[in-house]
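Researcher: Structure prediction, please.
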Amino acid sequence: MTAPTQPPARYRIRIRGHVDPVWSTWFDRLTVTPAEDGTSELTGPLADQAALFGLLARLRDLGATLLLVEQLTAEPRHPEGRDD
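Model: Predicted structure follows.
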C-alpha cells in the first residue's frame, strides 16, 4: 500500500544573525534573505518532515538561534486573467 504523494510544504524559518545567501545550497536550496533587524530568513519548499528535521539539526549544529518555524499556506489562486 502506497501513501498518496503530497507536494512539498513551504516553510519560513528565521534565525538570529546574518547568513550569506550563498549558503542556500547547504540549506536545501531554500532562499536565504538577511534582514535589517540582524536576522536571516530561510524560505522555500521542503520535501517532508524528515527534510525539515534535518535542516533544523544543521541549524542546531551551527549554533544558530532559532526564532521562528512556520509552515506557509498556499496562496489563494485567482481565476486566469484576474489579479484581484
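Model: The radius of gyration is 15 Å.
Researcher: Thanks, that helps.
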